[in-house]
Amino acid sequence: MAVGLEHYLILSAVLFSIGLYGALAKRNAIIILMCIELMLNAVNIAMVAFSRYIVPLLLTGQVFVIFIMVVAAAEAAVGLAIIISIYRSRETIDATKIDLMKW
Amino acid sequence: MPYQLVWLIFLLPFFSFAIISLFFRPFLNHKPKLGGYITIASLTASLGLSVWALMEVMAAPGHELPIPDINWVIIEGGITIHLGLMVDSLTAVMLIVVSLVSLMVQIYSQGYMAGDPGYHRYFAFMSLFTGSMLALVLADNLLFMYVFWEMVGLCSYLLIGFWFHRPAAANAAKKAFIVTRLGDFGFLAAILLLFFNTGTFDIAELHSLAITGALAGTTLTWAAIGIFSGAVGKSAQFPLHTWLPDAMEGPTPVSALIHAATMVAAGVFLVARCYPLFSHSVEALTTVAVIGGFTAIFAATMGLVMTDIKRVLAYSTISQLGYMMLGLGTGGIAIGIFHLFNHAFFKALLFLGAGSVNHATGTFDIREMGGLRKFMPWTYATFVIASLSIVGIWPLSGFWSKEEILASSLGSQPILFYLAMLTVFMTAFYMFRVVFLTFGGKYRGGGSEAHGKPHESPSVMVMPMVVLAVLAVVSGFWNVTGGFGQFLGHGETHSFAQGFFGILTHPLPWLSLILAGLGILLAYAIYSVKWLSAERIGSMFKPLYTLFYRKYWFDELYENVFVGKALVGGLFAGLQVFDTYGVDGAVNGVASATVAGGRAIRKAHTGQLQLYGLFIGIGILAIILCLYFFG
Question: Phi, psi (5° rounding) for residue B365?
Fold first, then answer.
């Protein structure tokens, strides 16, 4: 069985859904951050697959993925810093307890 | 001269008003005489033009001058409202009355108002009033007329309240304005009713519609009654008569001009101007006659007992205006307007005489005067002439017009005729009561403040009085052979016009002369030779005296019952409840509903970021599905 575009897209969708579920349902802020990374990478897979299968001569999609990885790394750094900061002030990283924006 | 010059008749006093108020008052306040001079100059020119207009109207075929209209308001869809002048015999007569009396009053005012700090303001308002009044009589459509109708009301308000620092004057001004507005409301309603039914404001067109019968039935009657209600307010007829006696708080020349000769006669003029509307509705014409006849005697009874000379004259004015209405209601334009014409001169003269007396004694209370005949011979002579004229003694002017009214009322409304006859007696009594108390006997000291010996007024005040006295004698001669009736009316003269002596062959004039003579005799007996004691008679008819003296409690009725109970206690209280709970309730309700809504909805803001994320996700999903299925 040849591996086609749709297989990559299904993988991407599965990964994205798992990431979305984790980001919305998990309590631990670090896991939420990891799930966000998962969603980003699901998008990366989709992009690379589109690039490879639809415009194989252009590298635009591939290069874009590199950028997303850089941004994701930066995001992870900032996100972790925020989590550490929250932990210092509130002694918890439970997302349901971090409700400072409540009415 | 081109007929367009007629515009200047009323524009000149407006210019005078503008010059005084924009230029003299701010910059030349230290030279008060200027205001009087420019007013007199503009009115002299207006009088000259009025005389010219009268001559032209007399010569013109059909007694009407053609004056081109100006388009004032053009509404898409075919309605054009003209701004035009109507110069017919009625207007020409009114122009003469207004400009002549106004000129005399302005000359007199120079003496009467001398030294008043509001001298410029006084002449500015007087100019404005005269201009508005002249425009009112010139207007050829009801809307244009209504504008000036309100402007003379405004000037009346400003001049009654001229000494606004006195609470009585300020209140009287408000009362005059508000009471007159009640009548004006009817006038405005009638104008709109006529406009919606005919599509025109033009008086001449309305006349022809009424005459051809295109405008008839209840519409015509209601319109006529509405117009008459405006006239009732302005001419202080029953039941809106209460403002005029209080209006005497204004300066006396103002009373002479506005509240005796011109503005209060505007109501009579209005009825005459719209006469075809009345004459084609029996109900309306009867209403005019009955209200007029009743007001004549009703006001006269109150005039019998007043002690303030100006208030006696005020009730006398109301009574005479009632006569005019009676004349219009039973006879025709010529009969009512002829009395207006004569009345303007002798009543203005009476007021100027009262002002002169006040100038000499410092009071208006006739109980504190007396003996002024010796001190003020000119005032005495002119006042007596005017009194004889208003009483209707042959051959003074009042006689000629009053006999016509009596004759026409005998013809169509016998009951009103008897009331009018009784009024003749009362008029004679109250006028000569004033004459004997003021000028006869011994001087009783005048006003409370030391005023010194009474003295004749300066010649600038006496001269206009002499001019008016001459007119009070001769103005009636115009209709001795029916000339006025032919000029103004359309042959509606009574068999009375039979010459200077011929009239004395009728029994009716003798009857009224005898009644007038009896009235004078009674006043002589009580107040001059004191055969009868006024106090004794007063206590003998105590209830009647109280009724008259308290003015039938109309002021109390209006102030306490209508205004106090019905309006303030009833309607206004109800409106206040509506305001508090309805209007405020709606406003506050919107606010509290918003607050409550916010309180309820803010529970959605849980602070749970993941929940927000979930909703964002659901939202995106919904958008995608929508695009997929409906896009």
Answer: -85, 120
Q: Which amino acid is at A83?
A: I
**Hey, is the C-beta of A98 within 8 angstroms of any chain B C-beta?**
yes
Q: Residue B514: left if φ>0, alpha if ψ -120 to 50, beta else—which one?
A: alpha
CB-nearest to A102 from B607, B610, B614 is B607
The answer to whether residue A24 sits within a structural domain is yes
Q: What is the pLDDT of residues B509-518, one digit of tens each?
A: 888 889 899 9
Sequence letter at residue B249:
E
Residue written as token pair 């109970």: B565
With 0-12 / 13-18 / 19 or more C-beta atoms within 10 angstroms meaning exposed / middle / buried, residue B444 is middle
Is pLDDT at B578 greater than 80 in this prediction? yes
Phi, psi values for residue B140, rounded to 5°: -105, 0
From A102, which residue of chain B is nearest by alpha-carbon distance?
B607
This complex has an ipTM of 0.84
Residue at A87 is within a domain:
yes
pLDDT score recorded for residue B149: 92
Least confident piece of the model among B206-210, B249-253, B488-492? B488-492
Exposure string for B159-168, b = 16+ CB within 10 A, e = fewer: bbbbbeeeee
Q: What is the reported pLDDT for B467?
A: 92
Q: Which two tokens stand for residue B571?
A: 């309607």
Say yes or no to pLDDT of B498 above 70: no
Gap between the Cα atoms of B289 and B325, Å rounded: 6
pLDDT in tens, B21-75: 898 888 887 777 888 898 999 999 999 999 999 988 888 877 777 777 777 777 7
pLDDT in tens, B367-402: 888 788 888 888 999 999 999 999 988 888 888 888
Identify residue B544 by its one-letter amino acid code: L
Distance of CA B574 to CAs B458, B536, B571, Å? 57, 50, 5
- Collect all residues of chain B within an 8 Å Cβ-Cβ radius of residue A31: none
Of A20, A25, A99, the CB nearest to B607: A99
> Contacts from B512-516 at CB under 8 Å and sequence distance 24+?
B512/B392, B512/B402, B512/B403, B512/B406, B512/B421, B512/B424, B513/B392, B513/B393, B513/B394, B515/B421, B515/B422, B515/B424, B515/B425, B515/B428, B516/B391, B516/B392, B516/B393, B516/B424, B516/B425, B516/B427, B516/B428
Instruction: Give the CA angle between residues B362, B427, B152 to the nearest 5°.
Output: 65
Distance CA B393, CA B391 (A): 6
Residues B233, B287, B545: CA angle, nearest 5 degrees: 65
Chain A residues touching B617 at Cβ < 8 A: 20, 24
Residue A26 lies in a domain: yes
The model's pLDDT over B101-124, given as tens digits with 9 standing for 90+, comes to: 999 999 999 888 888 888 888 999
Note whether A102 contacts B609, CB cutoff 8 Å.
Answer: no
Interface contact flag, B610 A98, Cβ < 8 Å:
no
- Provide the number of structural domains found in chain A: 1
State the pTM of this model. Answer: 0.78
Residue A45 forms part of a structural domain: yes
Residue scoring higher pLDDT (B429 or B76): B429
Residue A70 structural domain: 5-92
Closest listed residue to residue B345, CA positions, set B473, B513, B160: B473
Judging contacts by C-beta atoms under 8 Å, the chain A residues touching residue B613 are 23-24
The C-alpha atoms of residue B6 and residue B546 are separated, in whole angstroms, by: 51
CATH number for position A52: 1.10.287.3510
